[in-house]
Design goal:
Distance between the termini: 40 Å
Radius of gyration: 38 Å
Largest sheet: 9 strands, antiparallel
Shape: elongated
């Protein structure tokens, strides 16, 4: 049995949301396809206690919003943008030669051992070593070519006893044509994460939007990739999570989030159409049949007691009467907002409470509740 009915159909929402991130709300980037987009607002409170009057107030101590999603588009340019400046992003065209350094830490190599730069050019050929240095806090020290033997274009072998593998870290400089790709590097760049603006948008079939704006949100966790099995009918998923906090640059009451809803507001034409449909329904068959239920079929109380009868009904109007009309066994009152009758005993006797439910376009429903009043103790 239904306990209630939909109050406003336009408030029921369908579908997921897209997530957009950027430095400003007019410079947002769509993160792309995702799953399980979610938003959770949390707050912590503290009661203010008095010495002699209990709790006198409640203070809000923390207010934040967490946003998370499973990203199906592995796009490191967008990830770096969202992560607030803690990463470096480089794009390579597969044609341009660049200079790179390969670090060989001390105590990881031996004199006479072959050391190779393990990277390839875009065409698969070996990279070319241009110089070898010893790492030094005052500036790297160039190692003469007579101190090592070249092996091809990308390898060396230390031969000079002046180079100590146990203490000297080698810096090998080489040229490389990087494959065409996007490269994101992270770690050690900055300990400060720059907050970003985030907007979540849900669009319904009519093109109307439900939007959530977060003016100050920061990445709340590192990248997490879930690789499916080769046989699974699924794709690689990257999990992203953000935490939004209050922004002092925003107006009080708007510092954490703004919620904007076009979907629950009807156009004037739709309102007129809805009114016409309601009128038509009232003249013909009702959309929803009239219902009337009560939590009790009878009331048994003493003359000095009281009890309640609670109705469940979609009626437009509830009326009641008592038979016999001149009874003096009890008093009855009705609260329309809660659909509750209160029965107060007065004297021993029996009578009937007759409840009538009325709804436009429906026949009235009448329910009888037997009231039995016993003598007081």
């Amino acid at each position: 049995m239904s306990q209630t009915q939909v109050q406003e159909k336009s408030t029921i929402r369908y579908g997921s949301a897209k997530v957009l991130i950027g430095d400003r709300f007019d410079k947002l980037t769509d993160i792309g396809a995702g799953r399980n987009v979610s938003l959770k607002e949390t707050m912590s409170t503290a009661d203010v206690e008095s010495d002699n009057a209990g709790t006198v107030g409640t203070l809000q101590t923390e207010h934040k919003i967490d946003v998370s999603l499973d990203s199906l588009e592995i796009n490191f340019k967008k990830y770096a943008e969202a992560r607030g400046g803690i990463d470096n992003i480089n794009e390579y065209d597969g044609k341009t030669e660049i200079i790179k350094e390969y670090v060989v830490e001390s105590d990881t190599y031996k004199r006479g051992e072959e050391i190779k730069v393990p990277f390839k050019n875009a065409d698969g050929s070996e990279v070319t070593i241009t110089k070898v240095e010893k790492k030094n806090s005052m500036g790297n020290i160039l190692i003469e070519e007579t101190s090592y033997e070249k092996i091809g274009t990308n390898g060396i072998k230390i031969t000079d006893s002046k180079i100590s593998p146990s203490t000297d870290t080698l810096i090998i400089t080489y040229t490389r044509i990087m494959p065409k790709m996007v490269r994101m590097t992270t770690g050690g760049k900055s300990s400060t994460i720059k907050p970003k603006c985030i907007m979540l948008v849900n669009t319904n079939a009519e093109g109307k939007e439900f939007r959530i704006y977060l003016p100050q949100a920061s990445i709340a966790g590192g990248l997490e990739f879930t690789f499916p099995s080769d046989k699974a009918q699924d794709v690689l998923v990257g999990k992203l999570s953000f935490s939004a906090t209050t922004s002092g640059s925003q107006k009080s009451g708007e510092q954490l989030a703004w919620y904007e809803d076009e979907q629950s507001v009807s156009d004037d034409e739709e309102e007129i159409k809805d009114t016409e449909e309601e009128t038509s329904d009232a003249e013909g068959e009702p959309d929803v049949p009239l219902t009337l239920e009560s939590n009790k079929q009878n009331v048994d109380i003493r003359a000095d007691g009281n009890d309640t009868v609670v109705l469940t009904s979609n009626a437009d109007e509830i009326t009641h009467a008592v038979e016999p009309a001149e009874q003096s066994f009890f008093d009855v009152s009705y609260e329309a907002e809660t659909k509750t009758f209160t029965i107060t005993g007065k004297a021993e006797g029996t009578a009937t409470l007759k409840i009538t439910a009325k709804k436009a376009g429906s026949e009235d429903i009448i329910k009888d509740i037997s009231i039995n009043i016993q003598a007081a103790n």
